[in-house]
UniProtKB/TrEMBL annotation:
<protein>
    <submittedName>
        <fullName>MICA1 monooxygenase</fullName>
    </submittedName>
</protein>
<feature type="coiled-coil region">
    <location>
        <begin position="23"/>
        <end position="50"/>
    </location>
</feature>
<dbReference type="GO" id="GO:0004497">
    <property type="term" value="F:monooxygenase activity"/>
</dbReference>
<keyword id="KW-0503">Monooxygenase</keyword>
<keyword id="KW-0472">Membrane</keyword>
<keyword id="KW-0175">Coiled coil</keyword>
<keyword id="KW-0560">Oxidoreductase</keyword>
<feature type="domain" description="BMERB">
    <location>
        <begin position="13"/>
        <end position="154"/>
    </location>
</feature>
<dbReference type="Pfam" id="PF12130">
    <property type="entry name" value="bMERB_dom"/>
</dbReference>
<dbReference type="InterPro" id="IPR050540">
    <property type="entry name" value="F-actin_Monoox_Mical"/>
</dbReference>
<dbReference type="InterPro" id="IPR022735">
    <property type="entry name" value="bMERB_dom"/>
</dbReference>
Length: 154
């Protein structure tokens, strides 16, 4: 088994583990965001109830509650933005994994001697290459989307 093949296999496993760890971290953060959403919702409900009973409280207190409610809305919007970014990252990870698998398949066809390739092998190689280009284009679209989003936030 040539050294370069072992090196490629090891690098593929390492990159797969990195993607797996990133996916786990993203999943944990999405769960944290969901919990925080619920907490913000409960706090918002309490503040709304307090504001509806406005006849019983001074104007200064109402202003304070309104400011707290606006702060909760802002916090929720920030979490929604983060959640959206994480969902894009999940899609990017899936495409990255798909690209690695297609790279591996394509490499196996390309390493095969041309004299041993059948018509089906050549057709399969072209199909994998086509799929690989599609995946790269999809990843490019996601990166452009993230960049546009980042620029619009600035």
């Amino acid at each position: 088994y040539p050294t370069w093949k072992r090196t490629l296999a090891r690098r593929a496993r390492e990159s797969q583990m990195k993607r797996f760890c990133r996916a786990q971290a993203i999943q944990r953060r999405l769960e944290e965001i969901e919990v925080t959403f619920r907490e913000l919702e409960q706090q918002g409900i309490k503040l709304e109830k307090l504001l509806r009973d406005e006849n019983k409280s001074p104007a200064e207190q109402q202003t304070q509650w309104t400011n707290q409610l606006l702060y909760l809305v802002q916090k929720k919007n920030n979490l929604m933005t983060e959640e959206s970014d994480l969902m894009i990252a999940v899609q990017e990870l899936k495409l990255e994994e798909q690209q690695c698998q297609l790279d591996e398949k394509l490499r196996s066809y390309m390493n095969k001697d041309d004299t041993l390739k059948t018509a089906e092998d050549e057709k399969a190689e072209q199909e994998i290459l086509k799929q690989l280009v599609e995946v790269v284009n999809k990843r490019n679209v996601l990166i452009q989307l993230q960049e546009e989003k980042r620029l619009s936030e600035l």
